[in-house]
Amino acid sequence: MAQYEEFTIDQGADVAVEIHLVNKDNSKKNLTGYSVAAKLKKNYTSDSDDTTNFTSIVATPATDGVVTISLSNSQTDALKAGRYVYDVEISYLDSDSNTIIERVLEGRVQVTPSVTR
Predict the structure, then answer these.
(1) 43-77 pLDDT, tens digit each
(2) CA torsion, points 87, 92, 98, 99, in degrees to nearest 10?
(3) R_g (Cα) of the chain, nearest Å
(4) Which of 8, 25, 29, 77 has the most CB atoms within 10 Å of its CB?
(5) Cα–Cα distance between 102 and 36 in angstroms, integer?
(6) Which domains does the chain have, with CATH numbers?
(7) 78: nearest Cα among 51, 55, 47
(8) Kind and range of the H or E element at 107?
């Protein structure tokens, strides 16, 4: 089950969120061979035209279990002020070449309006 977090993004600003993933025993999750994807939408039923993709990476070294998601200032400037939903998923190929996907984080984002644009 994914962790739930709410956070605020300032319209027109660069934003980066570092996510530290751990195993049940609280050790760092080894993300070697994993990829990450994260998206932001106005609501869960929005079509793909309303989707903003985060730049999503597994930080080096992958054995530290750190994922970074980010949006550029031009991406956040294009967002209308208000509330959004997001999620972050990690994935890998198992030994049978099946893609295994795990949602690790989800929640709401509040975009605050900018005066200086």
Answers:
(1) 988 777 789 999 999 999 999 999 999 999 999 99
(2) 20
(3) 15
(4) 29
(5) 10
(6) 3-112 (2.60.40.10)
(7) 51
(8) strand 99-112
